[in-house]
Amino acid sequence: MSTEIMEFAELIKTPRVDGVVLHRPFMPTVEGTLCLTGHHLILSSRQDNTEELWLLHSNIDSIEKRFVGSLGHITVKCKDLRMIQLEITGMEECLNIASSIEALSTLDSVSLMYPFFYRPMFEVIEDGWNSFLPQNAFKDLESMTDEWRLSEVNKDFSLCPSYPPLVAVPKDVDDETLKKVATFRHGGRFPVLSYYHKKNGMVMMRAGQPLTGTNGRRCKEDEKLINATLRPGKRGYIIDTRAINVAQQAKARGGGFELEANYPQWRRIHKAIERYNVLQESLIKLVEACNDQSHSMDRWLSKLEASNWQTNVKEILTTACLAAQCIDREGASVLVHGTEGTDSTLQVTSLAQIILDPGCRTIKGFQSLVEREWLQAGHPFQQRCAQSAFSNSKPRYEAPVFLLFLDCVWQILRQFPCSFEFNESFLVLLFEHAYASQFGTFLGNSAAERARLCLPEKTVSLWSWVNRPQELERLTNPLYEPNSLVIWPSVAPQSLLLWEGVFLRWNRSSKCLDEAYEEMVHIIEYNKELQTKVNSLRRQLAQLETEDPLLHTP
Amino acid sequence: MEHIRTPKVLHSMVSSVERPPTTPSGGQLILRCKDFRIFQIFIPQERDGLDVHASLARLSRPEKYSELYCLSFNPNVNKEEREESWNFIDLMADYKRMGVPNNLWVATAANGEYRVCDTYPSELFVPKSATPTIIVGSSRFRSRGRFPALSYFHQDTLAAVCRCSQPLSGFSGRCQEDEMMLQALMKSNPGSDYIYVVDTRPKLNAMANRAAGKGYENEDHYTNIKLQFIGIENIHVMRSSQQKIIDVGEMRSPSMTDFLWGLENSGWLKHIKAILDAGVFVARAVADEGVSVLVHCSDGWDRTAQACSVASILLDPYYRTIRGLMVLIERDWVSFGHKFSHRYAHLDRDPKEVSPVIDQFLECVWQLSEQFPCAFEFNERFLIAIHTHVYSCQYGTFLGNSQKERRDMRLHERTHSVWPQLWKDRGEYTNPLYKAELSQSQGVLRPNTSPYCFKMWKGLYNHAEKSTPPRQSPADFLSAVREESQQLEEELTNHQEVPPGGTAHHHHPGSRQEDRSPDGEADHLGEDRGSPEED
């Protein structure tokens, strides 16, 4: 590790500059000393030596520098969409700082990332790395049905590099069959269980696209596997997250979709969820619209429209509602896939669970959902979240797939403000940590990569930090009232709003909204306090009555 | 009509009745209401449909005031209540609250019997140095005689918001008394040596008015004024813009592109922003710069009313209370001659006079309440209730086009005022998050008017969405919790009347035990909320 620290030292040309002025939106200007460490940009004001700014280099998306005389201005644009400005006197120092930040914020090696260096300053009550083990989740399933089994066929990640070692598959399908099916599905992603709907025993599965190619290759084992999930005489739905023409085109590259002739018991529905490069473009345009300084309503609305962000939100939510509807209303099982089955597929399966399963709307349940349907399911976080909206480099694998999922959850939360145990802050927190974090949770692109990096041994889990009383309190929705119902969000454009908590977070003061939130908490806390008092008084009185028979004769 | 089942809709709320072609299953009528609700009525017999259509078409287009609902019942039922209802809002008390009259602003009798200006109230406040000669002279130089008068006095800075109509200046006209009047306005603010004249029209429109002998103040003739144009469009533009946003609200399963394009194309939010910007300009001048402002448009009863009342909302927390908003509307809209009956088509008259002027003011307040959730005592329902009554003609408050017209119609003797009714229902209109002690509730509101801070007002323009299962409302939930807390507080107070310790036993009144509900009230929480979710 000492060689790595040496490596940082080489990158830091100037570790410390005095008299740096920091400008942040809606906060007072601060003058102080700027320090660069291996992982942080720190600014502390001289007066009381308190840190005014403590920014992870990995949170920096891009920087811009310009000079007015010898006064340098560095604009730091962060992955959480914040923009800050530093004024540094002296051209050389400014250039040094700028190039150091640039180098430190674009480290290639995962093992140099901060989570490998971070030592928690808090007491870990429950190790988050062990909070959501697949075998534990399966115990719940076993209590509801015996039609599924946990397979270890992928225990060394050889069958499917993006799957976890343990997956739930139909009981009657053996590992040999799974091996054959894996060769027929994109990335070896054979159909696995995503969700079991307790109410009617219907299931949701997910997979990669079938590799039918142009000559319509078929795989009997694949047909057998997914038919094994159907009840006698029942039909199922295949939700293909690509438009039909996109799915057709995939055949030329060896992909494709399930042909009716080979899957007569399944009805295929195509929806058009955008793919990653298009989504990245959409995010960049949206953020640009939010930072437009023209103050023209027409311009804002037309830029918002042109970004297509809200259209993407609507499309994803609509598809999730469709999947949920097939399961809950039609009483049918569902298989979801797109191309790889690691992006739009996961958006749909996880949102459908939010709609159907009240368990997913609790804090722990949501963590478990993110763990199961995103981390274990092989969403390539490291690739997708390498850059955010301000990046100057051409996007390769970057895409706000997870952010769109969180946005959709926020839309449902806003429409059902009493049905979620967590509040908006929790969603914002997950967005931040997916892009830059001191915790190891979102590092790597799959369970296999995380195992190789020995993350549970070498880093702290985000869940270890979140699941402490003081954090939980901050993230708990005071309006929450547990209910066991399915919640159907409206997907009408009028009902879908821009997620201000993320996209306008740094463009406006949040003081009044924060005050409103505190007031809301206060109203509910006060009510609880009164209830406790009244209940204890009632008990006291009841006791007095039994002790003193005189009371009964007024 | 026995076989027709409709919810109760006042005839005056009906904006149009359509009769699509009859189908084999019978005919139907489509009722569009002025509060943007739409009803479909199915009528099996074609003949009945025709009759109903004709009746409704006639009844929804009253030609005389006497046909209106509020004038069609016996006013002497509840005579005392009726008389009392008109005393509920006391404008003079509000002027007193803001510190007027004082040594800067005085009441003038000049408009007694509406002699000088028949669309102004009879009781008005003007600068102390404005003599009757100046007032009368100035009024002759202003459209409809609407001379500069006080709308709001800001005690903290001694600056004032005043209002009038455009000057009849043409290209070169001037009027000494009017110039003296503006000088008097300036002198009534010891803290500043100039005033702002805010012309709320787009500059081009104001210039066009000069050709007709009207226009705006020539800065060469008036000393110590700074002229500012704001650019709020006229009533015709607003009328067609509102129709477009209503259409957006009524779109059947639009795509996101359709919706956002429709929103942009309607121009509605742009207009709302312009009005709020006008209010912000006035409020900043008065509160931050301590400079008095004179606001006008053309006649000074539409855009001027909007700008002045938005400024008052921003400047004075009182107008953000339930009673305060009533007072504000009564002052800047009702008393200053906003033409309610023309603008909201109470009678079947010139459709070009109709325009959603007060709709826009109410929406500005709603947009503000979204930014400052704890600053307003009332909720969205209160704003919508006012909106409904502006159109409904169920009460006399908004009838007619001026104070004089209302006096001539003897409305106080023949109808009831709407305000006591709304006050009675205030429980329903209270914002549970309102907290007078917070900084956002006190003092001046400084809203962000960036375009992204404006949203479509779903509560008003999206009734179709509302008819699907209602969503959970945090506000209603919190109101229920607060109500329950109140009951608990009462129960606690009752219990605490019992002194602690052994001696208490004998003093404990037995009846107290019966008061206690054995199950406790803690469970009501869930019931009050109902279950808005579907299973």
Automatic annotation (TrEMBL), chain A:
<dbReference type="GO" id="GO:0046856">
    <property type="term" value="P:phosphatidylinositol dephosphorylation"/>
</dbReference>
<dbReference type="GO" id="GO:0048471">
    <property type="term" value="C:perinuclear region of cytoplasm"/>
</dbReference>
<dbReference type="Pfam" id="PF21098">
    <property type="entry name" value="PH-GRAM_MTMR6-like"/>
</dbReference>
<keyword id="KW-0963">Cytoplasm</keyword>
<dbReference type="InterPro" id="IPR048994">
    <property type="entry name" value="PH-GRAM_MTMR6-9"/>
</dbReference>
<keyword id="KW-0007">Acetylation</keyword>
<dbReference type="InterPro" id="IPR011993">
    <property type="entry name" value="PH-like_dom_sf"/>
</dbReference>
<keyword id="KW-0175">Coiled coil</keyword>
<keyword id="KW-1003">Cell membrane</keyword>
<dbReference type="GO" id="GO:0010507">
    <property type="term" value="P:negative regulation of autophagy"/>
</dbReference>
<dbReference type="GO" id="GO:0032587">
    <property type="term" value="C:ruffle membrane"/>
</dbReference>
<keyword id="KW-0256">Endoplasmic reticulum</keyword>
<protein>
    <recommendedName>
        <fullName>Myotubularin-related protein 9</fullName>
    </recommendedName>
</protein>
<dbReference type="GO" id="GO:0019903">
    <property type="term" value="F:protein phosphatase binding"/>
</dbReference>
<keyword id="KW-0472">Membrane</keyword>
<dbReference type="InterPro" id="IPR029021">
    <property type="entry name" value="Prot-tyrosine_phosphatase-like"/>
</dbReference>
<comment type="similarity">
    <text>Belongs to the protein-tyrosine phosphatase family. Non-receptor class myotubularin subfamily.</text>
</comment>
<feature type="domain" description="Myotubularin phosphatase">
    <location>
        <begin position="128"/>
        <end position="503"/>
    </location>
</feature>
<dbReference type="InterPro" id="IPR010569">
    <property type="entry name" value="Myotubularin-like_Pase_dom"/>
</dbReference>
<dbReference type="GO" id="GO:0005829">
    <property type="term" value="C:cytosol"/>
</dbReference>
<dbReference type="InterPro" id="IPR030564">
    <property type="entry name" value="Myotubularin"/>
</dbReference>
<dbReference type="Pfam" id="PF06602">
    <property type="entry name" value="Myotub-related"/>
</dbReference>
From TrEMBL, chain B:
<dbReference type="GO" id="GO:0005737">
    <property type="term" value="C:cytoplasm"/>
</dbReference>
<dbReference type="InterPro" id="IPR029021">
    <property type="entry name" value="Prot-tyrosine_phosphatase-like"/>
</dbReference>
<feature type="region of interest" description="Disordered">
    <location>
        <begin position="465"/>
        <end position="535"/>
    </location>
</feature>
<feature type="active site" description="Phosphocysteine intermediate">
    <location>
        <position position="297"/>
    </location>
</feature>
<dbReference type="InterPro" id="IPR003595">
    <property type="entry name" value="Tyr_Pase_cat"/>
</dbReference>
<dbReference type="Pfam" id="PF06602">
    <property type="entry name" value="Myotub-related"/>
</dbReference>
<dbReference type="Pfam" id="PF21098">
    <property type="entry name" value="PH-GRAM_MTMR6-like"/>
</dbReference>
<dbReference type="GO" id="GO:0004438">
    <property type="term" value="F:phosphatidylinositol-3-phosphate phosphatase activity"/>
</dbReference>
<feature type="compositionally biased region" description="Basic and acidic residues">
    <location>
        <begin position="511"/>
        <end position="535"/>
    </location>
</feature>
<dbReference type="GO" id="GO:0046856">
    <property type="term" value="P:phosphatidylinositol dephosphorylation"/>
</dbReference>
<protein>
    <recommendedName>
        <fullName>Myotubularin phosphatase domain-containing protein</fullName>
    </recommendedName>
</protein>
<feature type="domain" description="Myotubularin phosphatase">
    <location>
        <begin position="85"/>
        <end position="461"/>
    </location>
</feature>
<feature type="binding site">
    <location>
        <begin position="297"/>
        <end position="303"/>
    </location>
    <ligand>
        <name>substrate</name>
    </ligand>
</feature>
<dbReference type="InterPro" id="IPR011993">
    <property type="entry name" value="PH-like_dom_sf"/>
</dbReference>
<keyword id="KW-0443">Lipid metabolism</keyword>
<dbReference type="InterPro" id="IPR030564">
    <property type="entry name" value="Myotubularin"/>
</dbReference>
<dbReference type="InterPro" id="IPR048994">
    <property type="entry name" value="PH-GRAM_MTMR6-9"/>
</dbReference>
<dbReference type="InterPro" id="IPR010569">
    <property type="entry name" value="Myotubularin-like_Pase_dom"/>
</dbReference>
<dbReference type="InterPro" id="IPR016130">
    <property type="entry name" value="Tyr_Pase_AS"/>
</dbReference>
<feature type="binding site">
    <location>
        <begin position="234"/>
        <end position="235"/>
    </location>
    <ligand>
        <name>substrate</name>
    </ligand>
</feature>
<dbReference type="GO" id="GO:0106018">
    <property type="term" value="F:phosphatidylinositol-3,5-bisphosphate phosphatase activity"/>
</dbReference>
<comment type="similarity">
    <text>Belongs to the protein-tyrosine phosphatase family. Non-receptor class myotubularin subfamily.</text>
</comment>
